[in-house]
Amino acid sequence: MESCYPVRSFAAAAVAAAGSAVAELAESMTGAPVSVSADPALSRAWFAGSFQPAGWDLPSPWDALSRDYPCADGWIRLHTNAPHHRAAALAVLGLPDGADAGAAELAVRPWKGEELEDAVVEAGGCAARMLTAEQWLGHPQGQAVAGEPLVGWSRRRPAAPVSSAGTVERPLRGVRVLDLTRVIAGPVATRFLAGFGADVLRIDPPGWNEPALEPEMTVGKHCARLDLRSPQGAAKIRELLAGADIVVHGYRPGALAGLGLDEHRIQQLHPGIVTVAVNAYGWTGPWRSRRGFDSLVQMSSGIADAGMAWAAADAPRPLPVQALDHATGYLAAAAAVRSWTRRLNGEVHAARLSLARTAVELQRAADGRPPVPPPWKTRRTAYGAADSSPAMNLPLAAEQTHWGPGQRLYPPLVFEPKGGSPQMGWDVPAAPLGSALPEWQ
Fold first, then answer.
1. pLDDT tens digits for 411-423?
2. Hey, what's the torsion of the CAs at 438, 192, 8, 45, to 10 degrees?
3. Distance between CA 45 and CA 364 in Å, rounded?
4. Sorting pLDDT into bands at 50, 70 and 90, what band is 94?
5. Which of 150, 175, 196, 247 gives the lowest tally of CB atoms within 10 Å of its CB?
6. First vs last C-alpha separation in the chain
7. What is the DSSP string of 368-421?
8. What whole-number distance in Å separates Cα of residue 73 and Cα of residue 114?
9. Distance set, CA 354 to CA 62, 99, 411 (Å)
10. Is the Cα torsion angle 47, 321, 130, 359 positive or negative in sign?
11. Beta strand 405-409 with 51-53: parallel, antiparallel or unpaired?
């Protein structure tokens, strides 16, 4: 599917930012220059999905009710992939558990978009009415996000420099990464870190599953479960934090504090730990604590509306891939790697990113405005015109997973010189959530 947004070059720019951070880390180890480039076709393909099963199928990533619906004054999207989000939407619409999309469409149609959006969110669900870009810029949350940096940096109290077990080929070897993220953006970031040697331990709550995404996102990681609200789980997560070097989390503002794990407490558990946080709607403004996903942010920010107008379509037209998720993931990985490079010298940093702020960057690119330069140098960053997304034969490598064989795209980054430069690859096969113990390896 084509798009009015430069998804291909935007993907390459995000991947290049992460690759540049790895090159910088490798250079710091030897002093020898390392260059990196991101292949645009491969980068965009990774945004669409890097893994193809061989002889078996993946389930659909979407619940039957997760879709766009016409309402009384426009369009609204319900996101019902999680059971509790589905239950919230059905309760607001007055529908039984087994209701299908046809029943939901009839129930949605009389509602005004803003009223239904507010009702679903108030019930603990996820929804977003479609706004134009102009409406979003006039919205208090759109204004707040536009004023945020692409990557929000905070400097923490300096700590003693640490040594590294990394090598130029595997610069993150020995770095313990605690992954407290789900779905796409955060897992993309930690998959990238694992690709350069990090020891990634992902923690999910009991009962949480992502069957359509697990082969894609768990490669290189050990995946365990903990109930952080139980005394045992709370004690264990503190133990894991005390042993971590980097924590990447996807909790909304205040959510970690509710678990007794605000930034101050995390620094007490492990002084000098690097933290990278990702959320949907930004870190300031009235929606900073709102639940959200890529498809919802596209509706709120005007991306789906712009796509509909560009395609002369009669329904919202989203991006051909979940580019906000993936781009934010690579930018979060870049922030983590750059922070780790500084941490080796005793500097301690925390970073915050959001899907909504990444959307601002994509919209700037589509409008021909120069994007805000990321707070690190990139060896190759380019934005182009609308994405035509031609089908291409891209290189694949055989891979064995817990579920069976498959093929994964070649890494989208090329480092130079070819000898003695970082190598992207994974030592741990993809496996189900909860398949490992909550212990550092």
1. 999 999 987 899 9
2. -70
3. 22
4. very high
5. 150
6. 42
7. TPPPPPPSS--S-----S-B--------EEEEE-SS-EEEEEPPSEEEESSTTS
8. 9
9. 22, 33, 25
10. positive
11. antiparallel
DSSP one-letter string for 240-262: HHHT-SEEEE-PPTTHHHHTT--
The pTM for the full model equals 0.95
Evaluate the omega torsion of the peptide bond into residue 417 and state whether it is cis, within 30 degrees of 0: yes
User: Which two three-digit tokens encode residue 103?
Assistant: 């029943």
What does the radius of gyration of the chain's CA atoms come to, in whole angstroms? 21
d(CA 178, CA 273): 11
CA distances from 23 to 26, 37, 272, 438 (A): 5, 10, 23, 31
3-state class (DSSP) for residue 121 = helix
d(C-alpha 430, C-alpha 333), whole Å = 19
Query: Dmax over Cα atoms in the chain, in whole Å?
Result: 65
Predicted pLDDT at 1: 66
Cα–Cα distance for residue pair 47/418, rounded to 1 Å: 25
CB 12 within 8 A of CB 44: yes
Instruction: Please list, in sequence order, all residues whose beta carbon lies within 8 angstroms of the beta carbon of residue 387, skipping any fewer than 6 positions away.
Output: 2, 3, 5, 6, 7, 8, 9, 44, 320
Sign of CA dihedral 170, 172, 177, 180: negative
- Tokens 């002093």 found at: 31
pLDDT at 382 over 60: no
Q: Averaged over 236-245, what is the pLDDT?
A: 96
Average pLDDT across the chain, whole number: 93
Q: Which two tokens stand for residue 433?
A: 């959530």
